Amino acid sequence: MITIKDFSQKKSYCVPTTIMRTPLEHWLALASVEGLGSVRIRRLIARFGSAQAIFEAELPEIARLPSFNPVLASRILTVAGNFATLRERLDALKAQEVRVMCPVDDTYPSQLKALPDAPGILCSVGTLTDLSERCVAIVGAKEPTAEGIQLTLSLSTQLALAGFTVVSGLAAGVDAYAHAGALAGMGKTVGVVGSDLSAIYPARNNPLATKIYEHGCLFSEHPFPTTPSPGNLIQRNRIISGLSMATIVIEAAKTGGAMHTAEYAQRQGRKVLTCRWATQHALSEGPRELIRIGAIPFTPTEVDKVIDMLTHPERLETYSSSAATEQIGLFETVLS
Predict the structure, then answer these.
(1) Which fold has domain 126-335?
(2) pLDDT beyond 90 at 211
(3) Spatial separation of the C-alpha atoms in residues 208 and 270, rounded to whole Å
């Protein structure tokens, strides 16, 4: 309590203190609610106007919203009692040099802000603090072929030399080679992980994560201890594609993380490029399927073509239209 003295009246009045919570604390509180994902958080923001206003709402107001119920509404309002603990968590992350951002922060990547499922909280470590829109995602199989490895290294190195930031998921295989190629080109690279930033998965990529930390950054949407479950790894793929102007799939089976990333990119209105392999094998099936549904194809010898397309984004539409026409021709050939 604060005591205010009115000396003219010789009386004392007591008024309650008000603890001002920051927008980040309110967003972190929402992120801590079990069962409240990023899409639902955005629905709440759309309804109430701000993260703070959500905690000032009545339970029935929240419970009546589509995909909400009294149990979830109660969880949301109950978490308001945990602000002291949440503040301690933010302090602990700051002590570990982890930057914590929410969508209303200027430092939050602009590429993600407009997405309906953008992370409510984004954690980052590393030297790269200002992420430009010249980001390109490179993803693919965990056990790529020798040709796939060679293409990944060549493409990521050339992209780095052209001034692009290479984004991937720090997974084994194509992801790791994409980061390594960008570093070899003395460029910037971003790793998006499906756990919190205290532990890297797989563990053998710890040395690579350290190099990314020194020449780029690592992102996670998990401010609390989180294991890299299959669901979390799939969800992080929307961040990989969301940060990037285009997603490039090197090699992939018809199902798997790389295909999920390409699907997210298409939903987000971003271009998808993929390699058209001359030989048919299990890891060429994913690219063939992506080309069938509209991805822009290139051959292993057309790295320069890819760099040209991405350096001049206005040409992507031309290449995309050409690819669509090519697919129609192939379709008509099969029917004839």
Answers:
(1) Rossmann fold (3.40.50)
(2) yes
(3) 28
